[in-house]
Design a protein that fits this description.
Length: 813
């Protein structure tokens, strides 16, 4: 049965409030600032209309009132990875305080409102606590320990340390987040609980430390603890978790996020009140927009005649004709919120089948011209059907040679065959976790690769009508991606070792072919058998290696006749390019030389090679002439943010359902979890808010190594360079005093070496001192010769030095 595709209409963007983040109450407890849609907002603690203080396209986080109520500090991405800014609490223009290339995340203020504390990964170490004066200067380290959150105490500070992500629930063990109190090098554990303890806060009421920890029902609640006493649970909210709490400087008001909403808590009676907010502005950007796709291609396929191409760009599927080295007559096959991928042309070139992901399912769809006698690429309005395979997940389709059947993988990556004519679907074998598969000429057999020992795959052959798979590789290497040449006498596959050897191998099906010389084999390949027969005995011993290069788990392409194999290979400079070898294991050659990093490689019998380059463009090369051109294309599409977020969320949810190591999902009702978080995710119009909702969903599984990140903005402001010195932060004289030099950094190299005790007077003509930020002087100076004016024991002289990236310095410490 075939059903028509319907365009997805969601329209779930909420006009109400959802997912307030990182609230901070004012010192008098009457107002609260918070993050919403990437901006800083303010509202009354009693609720009502909210006011945007920091609008813009950048993402603002971690707002925090100064104890005197005059200023708000926050972190903004407007200048790259994140820098510290301060502004008048009433609104107005903000002032940038930090200039480091890393991420500087605001933590709190000093008690006198003169300095802002933040965490940053700099020359010293990861996520150390630094402070910077509101008047400026170079930041100085306060706590030389890796931490997540802190609060100041009358006699030191409390900080949160550990190894679990804030979104992980129900964890108890050696990696849990714990709260430590102290200062300098003298720290004590707050208590010995193995549960995660997060977000320490100090309240002068009863001299207590407040923090978040799960209660006996598994909900993250607020607790308080006095020195020498047992922790006391103070909130008892159900069906949700308290996150991102903050306390005001007087210790009487706590604000926190709960189930996407904003709440306040009064100390010391511990009463909780929801802050009902009213948005006071429209969205700062359109929720629907047009864009052009094609500048980066996701995947593609070319029909057997070499005249039609199907290509996917950002999940939309198009087809066109290849004419004179370019793509022409582009027609839209599918464009919308659903995600298309894996297009494959039928053997006669009249139909393209592809996977279409939507609503937590992946279905097979096929497109063809409205006129049965026309090519799809020449069709103005292609017809598109969804194939009713009976599987809720169907991906990686491959056509049988006669064009009547399609093989695919289901949600457990088991191999199926669907008959396009009859609509009948069978499970070929019960083997799960199959990764690659390929049809034999004539369609009698299917080959596939599947992990059998950790990540190591083996190659199997199974009757396409179902049966027992036969292991034909039986080798400790990782053997993968079987390909069946049209001669029917052998099979190709890739093989790799963990130490970086990548090989192309082939197995001969008969002893006669194996024993034949090159000329006899050539005759055999020119005379394919009427049916593919396999001599199973000794099959794995009839394996030969065609070539071995430096590589990894990389996918090759082979011509239909199996005589030309193209694959990625690394050179001694660390560049990956396109290489080829012939079926005899001869003529190994490098085709490209510019670091193409080829993917999705297709080869025809004439030696033309098509692939996706590092830039995302479709390139064409040949075995004799190298790269001959780029097949550029672009098409306009229409986007809806709500539909995109819904698709991303559903796909993330499905991938966890189908690939999590525990089929029981750690006893979590995964369907209910989807309902719990989906609308919040769809309502998140910026990616960081969306990612946080998905993180909360992942946290329900209480598993390590789960997270979601990106996409990142690569149009960030210029980053500062680093020269590899540690300043003397106690220095009050002119210039910047060098305390120590990081070995092998620019400041430790011949010709630009600095020594402890040197004083840097200026950086490329800009005077620097205790009131100046060294990293501001190094802006735009990375990889550029920079002149330092240096005072060494009273002698003034210039040193030319070449600053490097912050990450280069980080690798040295």
């Amino acid at each position: 049965m075939i059903v028509l595709i319907k365009m997805l209409v969601i329209g779930l963007i909420s006009t109400g409030m959802s997912d307030i983040r990182e609230p901070s109450p004012s010192p008098d407890g009457t107002a609260v600032v918070f993050c919403f849609r990437g901006d800083i907002w303010e509202a009354s603690v009693s609720g009502g209309t909210m006011r945007c203080l920091v609008p813009g396209e950048s993402t603002e986080t971690s707002p925090c009132y100064s104890p005197d109520g005059r200023f708000i500090a926050f972190t903004s991405s407007r200048t790259g990875g994140g820098d510290v800014y301060v502004m008048d609490a009433r609104g107005g223009v903000s002032t940038r305080l930090t200039y480091h290339a890393g991420s500087d995340m605001v933590l709190c203020w000093s008690a006198d409102s003169e300095s802002v504390y933040f965490k940053s990964s700099r020359e010293g170490g990861s996520s150390w606590v630094y402070s910077i004066r509101v008047t400026g200067g170079t930041p100085s380290p306060v706590a030389r320990v890796e931490t997540e959150n802190i609060c100041l105490l009358p006699d030191g500070m409390a900080l949160e340390r550990g190894f679990t992500s804030w979104w992980r629930k129900h964890y108890s063990g050696s990696a849990s987040m714990k709260i430590w109190t102290g200062y300098g090098t003298d720290w004590e554990l707050l208590d010995a609980s193995e549960l995660d303890s997060r977000w320490p806060m100090y309240s002068a009421h009863n001299n207590e430390i407040l923090f978040i920890r799960e209660d006996s029902d598994g909900h993250a609640a607020l607790w308080s603890m006095q020195a020498g006493e047992e922790p006391q649970q103070r909130t008892f909210l159900t069906d949700g978790d308290i996150t991102f709490p903050s306390i005001n400087s007087t210790g009487g008001t706590v604000a926190f996020e709960f189930n996407g909403g904003l709440y306040s808590l009064n100390v010391p009676d511990w009463s909780v009140t929801e802050i009902q907010l009213i948005p006071a502005s429209d969205f700062p950007f359109p929720l629907e927009y047009g864009e052009s796709v094609g500048f980066a291609t996701d995947c593609f396929d070319i029909d057997s005649s070499g005249t039609q191409i199907a290509m996917v760009g950002t999940g939309d599927l198009f087809a066109g004709t290849i004419e004179d080295g370019s793509i022409e007559n582009i027609v839209q096959i599918y464009s919308g919120a659903w995600r298309a991928r894996d297009p494959v042309w039928s053997p006669d070139g009249m139909t393209v089948v592809f996977s279409l992901e939507h609503d937590g399912e992946v279905q097979l769809a096929r497109s063809f011209a409205e006129n049965p006698d026309s090519l799809l690429a020449n069709s103005t309005f292609p017809e598109t059907d969804i194939l009713s395979t009976g599987s809720d997940v169907a991906f990686k389709p491959e056509w049988s040679p006669d064009g009547e059947r399609i093989s695919y993988l289901d949600r457990n990556s088991r191999l199926h065959v669907f008959n396009v004519i009859t609509g009948h679907d069978i499970t070929v074998c019960d083997t799960p976790d199959i990764i690659h598969h390929s049809w034999s000429p004539g369609g009698r057999w299917l080959a596939f690769s599947v992990p059998v020992l950790a990540h190591r795959e083996e190659i199997f052959i199974v009757p396409s009508g179902g049966g027992e798979p036969h292991n034909i590789s039986r080798h400790p290497n990782d053997d993968f991606q079987p390909f069946w040449p049209e001669d029917g006498r052998r099979i190709l596959y890739a093989s790799r070792t963990d130490d970086g050897d990548y090989s192309i191998k082939q197995v001969w099906f008969s002893r006669d072919a194996w024993d034949s010389d090159a000329d006899e084999r050539e005759e055999l390949l020119d005379q394919p058998p009427a049916a593919v027969d396999i001599e199973w005995e000794g099959l794995q011993r009839r394996t030969e290696t065609l070539c071995t290069v430096e590589g990894y788990y990389d996918f090759y392409g082979a011509s239909p006749d199996g005589r030309i194999i193209a694959f990625p290979g690394w050179d001694d400079k660390g560049l990956m390019d396109l290489w080829t070898v012939d079926w005899k294991g001869e003529s190994l050659q490098r085709v490209t030389h510019s670091g193409e990093y080829p993917e999705d490689i297709l080869v025809n019998n004439e030696g033309d090679i098509y692939y996706i380059s590092l830039s995302g463009s479709i390139r064409k090369a040949s075995t004799g002439a190298g790269v001959s051109g780029t097949l550029g294309w672009h098409m306009p599409v229409w986007r809806s943010i709500s539909e995109i977020q819904a698709q991303k969320f559903d796909e993330a949810w499905r991938l966890l359902r189908d690939n999590f190591y525990d089929p029981q999902m750690h006893e979590v009702d995964w369907d209910s979890i989807r309902v719990m978080y989906r609308e919040r995710a769809v309502s998140s119009v910026i990616n960081e808010d969306f990612n946080d909702v998905v993180r909360r969903m992942l946290g329900e599984l209480s598993a390590s190594h789960l997270g979601i990140y990106g996409p990142w903005d690569f149009d960030a402001a210029p980053a500062s360079g680093s020269i590899g010195i540690i300043p003397d932060y106690s220095w009050t004289g002119s210039g910047i005093l060098v305390d120590s030099v990081i070995p092998y950094s620019p400041a430790d190299l011949e010709g630009s070496r600095l020594y402890p005790g040197d004083v840097i007077i200026s950086v490329h003509g800009m005077d620097v001192g205790p009131e100046d930020n060294l990293y501001r002087a190094l802006l735009q100076r990375r990889d550029l010769i920079t002149r330092l004016r240096v005072n060494r024991s009273g002698d003034l002289f210039d040193i030319d030095i070449e600053p490097v990236s912050v990450w280069s310095i980080r690798r040295l410490v």
